[in-house]
Amino acid sequence: MSTRFKAVIFDLDGVITDTAHYHYLAWKRLADSVDAPFDEAFNEQLKGVDRMGSLELILARAPRTYKPEEKRALADAKNGHYQESIATMTPGDLLPGALRALEEVRAAGLKIGLASVSRNAFTVLDRLGIRDRFDDVVDAATVVNGKPDPEIFLTAAAHLGVDPRDCLGVEDAAAGVASIKDAGMFAVGVGSPDVLHRADRVIPSMAAFRLSDY
């Protein structure tokens, strides 16, 4: 297969698997505990945002302010709720087309990276049975700045030994697409063109991913 890229870097949530509902339930439980209004519409604002950033958005709606140590405890509590949920994940939770996309990229001889703001990325990959499919995994513990900052994609490219201009990034969130573009990469958005307007190409789902299209 002919392609101009040397590596493909995937996001995790919403691209390889859908943990959005698990995150929603965990954040809803946390928000309820601090009397902050929380629904699925507000939850959309957290898409692609790291844990502490998401917590700040929720606490901005709470009736009182919180000290740094309280925020850390709340973030840990949310993570505990989330970990309880993902412990039940299996390879059956891979999104349609995700495994085929990984196999296609590997068959083309390209390197494969993962750039996820999740601190549970390795656990999720293990539950899905695909950790060995990736040449490198960059998660929130590896970088200082979360998306939309380009650091996580630049770090992934550096770990893979590939120039960012030779990388294709795949994301489902506007913040993630911004991260890819600001890293100087080609961006494939998974979702709605109205939301992912900075992407070079938008596909409705991973089932539509074809490396030869780019």
TrEMBL record:
CDD domains hit by this protein: HAD_BPGM
Gene Ontology molecular function, alphabetical: beta-phosphoglucomutase activity
Short name of one Pfam family: Hydrolase
Swiss-Prot/TrEMBL keywords: Isomerase
Enzyme kind, highest EC tier: isomerase
EC number(s) recorded for this UniProt protein: 5.4.2.6
Organism domain of life: Bacteria
Family of this protein: Belongs to the HAD-like hydrolase superfamily. CbbY/CbbZ/Gph/YieH family.
NCBIfam families linked: bPGM, HAD-SF-IA-v3, PGMB-YQAB-SF
Protein name: Beta-phosphoglucomutase
Organism of provenance: Telluria antibiotica
Origin organism lineage: Bacteria, Pseudomonadati, Pseudomonadota, Betaproteobacteria, Burkholderiales
